[in-house]
Write a structure and sequence with these properties.
This protein has 332 residues and is α/β, with parallel strands linked by helices. It has a single domain, classed as Alpha-Beta Barrel (TIM Barrel). The protein contains ten helices and 14 strands. It has a twelve-stranded mixed sheet with strand order 9-10-11-8-7-6-5-4-3-12-13-14. The protein has a two-stranded antiparallel ribbon with strand order 1-2. Helix 3 links the parallel strand 5 and strand 6. The radius of gyration is 19 Å and the shape is globular. It starts with 5 loop residues before the first strand and ends with a helix. The mean pLDDT is 88.
Amino acid sequence: MSGHSLRDRHGRVATDLRVSLTDRCNLRCTYCMPEAGLPWLPKPELLTDHEVIRLVGVAVTRLGVTEVRFTGGEPLLRPGLPAIVEAVGRLDPRPEISLTTNAIGLERLAPVLVEAGLDRVNVSLDTLEPDRFKELAKRDRLERTLHGIKAASQAGLDPVKLNTVLMRGVNDDEAPALLRFALAHDYQLRFIEQMPLDAGGTWRRDQMVTAAEILESLKAEFDLVPDPAHRGSAPAETWLVDGGPAKVGVIGSVTRPFCGDCDRTRLTADGQVRNCLFARDETDLRDLARSGAGDEEIAERWQAAMLGKKPGHGIDDPSFLQPARPMSAIGG
């Protein structure tokens, strides 16, 4: 296989690796998993810390990956997270290292993770109302989340990015309040269209709050101008707020897909490569590594997995089928 990059047949090159460290979470957000939870992956099926570090190392040193984002489930639940971050930070060339989290536990861990080498953090925050948070996440944890966000900023993980999913009839009236909160604290807010990745399979296109609706609600209170900066492969379209420099982003994964510029590859907590968030096929690197394969063989298997990436996710196609794995088992 020619070249040492994760190139697909449509000319896209994956340089951004999303690594799920666990399928477990300490919240039960309704758009992700049921209140009772899910059958967790058995521990022997999960990649060990050493295996995570090895596979990330193959991606970075042999396949051109320049950004590594750790996700879950909730990655702060992974005991070895600081050691994994530290090991990845020692790779040459060193990738940018980030984390997507609900921030519960970040108050304690933020300084530790910064010392280990963490560069950036994205925090899921869907509401500022304690009762709504409890209704959405089935846990009374808003205060701990807000403390975690503040701790991340104080530890130097700036700019802290906030990710919000708006749901019709639940929190879709809260967009302006969330933006005011972000502006007041110098956080960067990004709204994300709800995607068909819930464990219950209840997502409906006609119930989704669209990017256009989100922008309409924000424009009722703010002056938004399209950001003149080049978007590149970034998933969020951004707008300058009230003349800037503050910005707000909207990720229209469904109505404004950015598949043509996608630069991502994904590794699940049990060592499967997914070439798209909505892929229905996976490539097993865990058993390949455990069978004694060398790094070059693993790299070639990863390249082959990415070659088959489809041109788009096809959510708007009538034949679209939701992936068997829910978001919590894929990683954000």
